[in-house]
Amino acid sequence: MKVKAKNKEPVFHLFIHIILILCSLACIIPIILVVVISLMHEKDILLNGYTLIPHNATLNAYVTIFSNAKQLISSYVTTIGVTVVGTFTGIWLTATIGYVITRRDYALRKQLSFYVFFTMLFSGGLIPSYILISKWLNMRDTYFALFVPGLVSAYNILLMKGFLQNLPISLIEAAKIDGASELKIFMSIIIPISKPAFATVGLFMAFAYWNDWMASFLYIDSDSKIMLQYMLVKVMKNLQFLNSPEALRYGIIPQDIPTYSARMAMCIIATGPILLVFPFFQKYFVKGLTLGSVKG
Asked: Could you give phi then psi for residue 200, rounded to 5 degrees?
C-alpha cells in the first residue's frame, strides 16, 4: 500500500501544477488582451472583435490620450503626491490607533474599539461629508480634499489591531523596565516587527488613493489638481461625445477617434505604476494577510 501511495504522489503533484498553470493563464491572458486591444485599430475591433493577435497594430489610442500631455503629466504628479502623502500619513494614524486599542493597560480601549467599529456600521452619508469637507473645513479645490477624507478607515484600523494584538506584551514590559517612553517603544520595537502589517495596510491605502476619482469629481474645480483616474474618465467621455451623432447639434463633425482601444490604453496608463510597485511589497503583503489569522 505504501508503494502505491508513493506512485500516486507524482500524479497528484502534476494535477496540482496543471490547475495552478490554468489559474495563472486565466490571470495573465486578460492582461495580455488589454495590451493587444490598446494597439488595435478601431475598425479592426468593430469588424473582428477582440483578438490576441492584432491585424494592424497602431498607437493611435496612445497618441490620442497623450495629445494633452501637459494635463496627463499634471494628473500623474498629483496622483503620485496624494498617494504617497496620504498612504504614509494614513499608515501612521492607523497604526497608532490600532496600537492603542490593543494595549490592555489603556483604560478606554474597549470604548475606543466600539467607536471605531460603530463607524463601519453607520456613516454620515455623502451630503454631510460634502458639507464637512467643502464648507466647514474649507478644503474645496485644495489638495487636502484629495487625501484627508481617506486617511483613517475603520476597516484598516481593525485589520491593524488584528496584527498588533498578537505581538508579545513581554517586549513592551521589558522596554518599560528599561525606561523607554511610549513613543520610543512604538518607533523602535513595534514598527520594525510589524513590517508585514504596515505593508498590507499600506498597499490597501495606496490602491484606494490611486484608483480614487470621486474626490476630484466632488471637491476639485481646477484641472491642474485633478487626479489621474478622473482625468481619464473625462477624456473617455470627450472621446465618446466626439464620435457620437450628438456632436452635430453643437456644430462638431463626428470624427474617427479610437474609443474601444483608448479604454484599454487608459487601463494600462492607470494601472502600470501599481503593477511595477506591487512585486516589491509582495512578500510582505502575503505574510501580512495571514499574520493575524492564527492565534495561540
From this structure: -65, -50
Contact 110, 102 (CB under 8 A): no
- Give residue 180's identity as a one-letter amino acid code: A
pTM of this structure: 0.79
Tell which phi-psi region holds residue 62, choosing left (phi > 0), alpha (psi between -120 and 50) or beta: alpha
Question: What is the rounded CA–CA span in Å between residue 203 and residue 56?
Answer: 38
Identify which of 220, 203, 229, 233 has the alpha carbon closest to the alpha carbon of residue 144: 220
Q: Class of 68-291 per CATH?
A: mainly alpha
Task: Find the mean pLDDT for residues 102-125.
Answer: 84
Measured distance CA(145)–CA(143) in Å, rounded: 5
Higher-confidence position of 250 and 205:
205
The whole-angstrom separation of Cα 266 and Cα 66 is 10
Taking 50 as the threshold, does the pLDDT of residue 296 lie above it?
A: no
Single out the residue of 191, 120, 192 nearest to residue 153, CA to CA.
120
Domain assignments of the chain as residue spans, ordered by start: 2-38, 68-291
Residue with cell 454631510: 128
